[in-house]
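Reopening this one. Same input as before:
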Amino acid sequence: MRLRIVSGPGAPSKFPGAADGLITLAEGPAFLVQADRPPRSWTTSDGTRCFLFGDVYAVRSNDGRMLSAASGLQERCLEGPRGIASVEGRFVFVSVDSDDTCVVWGDRFGTLDLYYQSAQGCVLMASALDLLPIAGTGGALSTIGLAHTLAVYGSRPAKQHTLYDDVGRLGVDQGARLADGRIEFLTRPFQPLRSAEFGQRELNEYTDTFLEAVAARGSVHGNVVYLSSGWDSTAILACLVHLYGARKVRVVIGRMQYADRSGVINPFEIDRAKAVADFFGVRLDICEFDYRTGADALVERVQSMYRRQQIASLTGLNHALLAEYTASTSNGDEAVFAGEMSDAAHNLGFSQFATIFHPVQDFREYSDKMLSYLFGPTFLSAFQNGDYEDDLIWQIFKSRASQGVLDEPAEGDEGRARQLLASFFLRGNRLPMWSMDNTPLLTPAGRSQYSAEMEETYLSRASQEVTPETLYSWYLHLYNSFHWQSSTVCTLHYTAEENGLRCVLPFHDGGLIDFLSQMPESWGRGLDLKPTKYPLKWMLENRIRYPTHLQVGPHSYLYDVDHSFSHTAEILYGSSLRPLFLERFGRKVPQSWLDRVDNSVFDAEYIDQILARYQEGVEVGGGEMNDVMMLGLLALTECYG
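Same output, byte for byte:
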């Protein structure tokens, strides 16, 4: 979906070049609404014209029931900002009143990006950067946008930031009123939910909610699951077979070969996927993620999309391969499902058996729970009360982080809440009080500037208002501004759209997020014995036909049995991406932005040193290797122009 709105004197004639391929939907002397295809539209009783861009899956009634999108209720719900939260979908709503004032709102989670820029006395808002006149203003780069892209996993600016100083992006709870060449920001205040005591009734409620979420996004014409063989994608598969039957479902998995020296790096995943597909009687297709050759052609295919959506990630390249393969074998009307975001929604991202390496998988799962506990309500209370140093779990992880720098605890309850949230969302490693001093890409002044702006923009209200009872609700809300819109997630949608597909994420369902916002610590997030993703696993054992016996043994990749194995090392040193990295580094591409930003923020000497070692063939590990990868991906796509 491509959308552009221009407000200001002479709007229809001022920016003709960017309108190529767009059709005009509404026009006046001082406003213009354009898109690449006709949206759903209607006129209210007072003459306001309404346009709905994107997809609506369903509407939730006041009692939480899921109603069909065909009910027409979404029109009434969308006409007021509070009603938008009840509409499930990935969409943008635009209204134009008789005074030529445009009001714009995104869906509850802000899943469709809306960029805005002021130029030539007008304000422009668009769904992609190439629909804005960035080049005409010099394209000054954003120091903070770049800092977050390089310093935090996800390789994309946080939600309200972009890679450009004079271009912003609507936040999760923001709307906009465009009139007379000006933009006024509107707010839909987030109301956090409190954790509650859950029991048997809630287990069935979770199951019903998840089945509704899958059904609302499914297609009677066929459904494809991007399969990883883990709990999340196979749970979606089980539910789709339960709802539509095996003949309406197929699965696609990527076989990863990053370098000759390592061969197939996800053999356990492939073997389990075959067994799961056989169990459900569905067709399994294997897409080759073969980076031993041909990376240059793949990068060329995605580069335009990466640039217009400020993306830089290896995961996005994998998603592009999946989407291309799926489209080549699709009937054109299938829904494409992905299990992304389940880890975060259920267990704050600590559900990967990767917290502490150990040959016993059950212990690795419990170590995930221990780290989740350190960001949970019990530890927050101890942290704010000053009792945390006696916590055994804290002592274990603090001792394991002895080579890193930890900050001193902040002053006051608000200060410590902000510190915990910053450790979670604004650091390269997730551990309470993990210091920005562990981020050598930034200078001391740069770390301070980055922390101050990011905390004020995203964490200020949360740190003032959060309580142990609302902590999970705040995490899941803030995720929408960080990882859930990052290059590793948004590329599922954008690569699918590039290939004429519709990708849906049933774990990003409003009813499910509300449930998990209230789910107690004891349901797999803390030190109790319930497993990670407890309600999901209960559903699969008690309500849905599912091969639980297959979820044993190594999780997915070679690092499940060899802790020294690294995906990043294989890409940097053994794949056909390496010549591309070397070519960009030789042209000083990643360093070039230092001349276009506040270069007191980035440590140019450190960057030059690590890139020189990489060019010399020195194989490093740890944080330095990750920094080279981040710089390489940004340079590879040259997404900052």
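So the earlier flakiness isn't reproducible anymore. For the record, The chain has 23 helices and 18 strands.
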